[in-house]
Amino acid sequence: MKSALNARLLSAAELVRQDATFADIGTDHAYLPLFLLDEGRIGYAYCCDINGGPLNSARRNAEERGRAEQMTFILTDGAAALADKGITDYAICGMGGELIADIIDRAPHLKDGNVNLILQPMTRQEKLRSYLASSGFKIMSESYSFDAGKYYVCLLASFDGKCREISELEAIVGSDKSSCVDRDNRRAYLASKLKSLENALNGKREAGINCDEDSKLIAQIKEYISNI
Length: 228
What we know:
Elements: H1 7-13, E1 20-25, H2 31-38, E2 42-49, H3 52-64, E3 71-75, E4 89-95, H4 97-105, E5 116-121, H5 125-134, E6 137-147, E7 150-159, H6 168-173, E8 179-181, H7 183-206, H8 212-226
Parallel strand pairs: 1-2, 1-4, 2-3, 4-5, 6-8
Antiparallel strand pairs: 5-7, 6-7
C-alpha cells in the first residue's frame, strides 16, 4: 500500500525532481519523503527535525513501511548540518515564512544553482518572497492548493545570485515571471489574503490610524486579482 498525501503536501511533492537526493526539513512524521519513495520519485531521503519526538515518529513510520534503509534521520535545527550530503532538493514546509528564511540564511550551501528549494510557508509569505529576492534566489514556480478549509502556496526557488528588492505588492501576490500551477486556487488564495488585509485595515481605521498606504496596496491587489 502506497503512502497518501493531503493536497497541501502533494503540491510540494510535485515540485521535487525525478531521482533527486532529497531532504525534508521539519519532517514531522516523514509523510512527504515516504510518499516520494513509494512513487519512485526519489531513491533516498534525509529526514530532519529539531525535536526528537517527531523524528522518532518518522523513523517508526519508515520502519513500518519497509523504507528505513532508504532514509537517514537527523536531529538538527535547520539545514546547515547537511552541507556535505550532496542533496539536490530540499523541502522546508509547514512553518512560518520568516523561520524558513532564517533556515536558508543559516545554510550557505543552499546558495547553489543546482539546488532546488521547495518552500511552503504557513504565514508571512511576503517576508519569505522578499528575503529570497534580496538574497539572490529566483522563484521559478508557485503551486497553489486548497486543504482543510485553507489555501496554501508552495514556492520552487533556486539561487541565481541576482539580488533585488521587490515591491510590497509583488511580495504578496508573487511575480508573473514565475510559472503558476493551478490558477484558480491562486486567485482564491489571493482573495483570502485580501480579506485578511481588509480586516486589518478596518481595525486600523477604528483605532484612528492613517491607512492611506494600506488602502493603496489593497486597491492594487484587487486590480491584480481581477486581471488573473
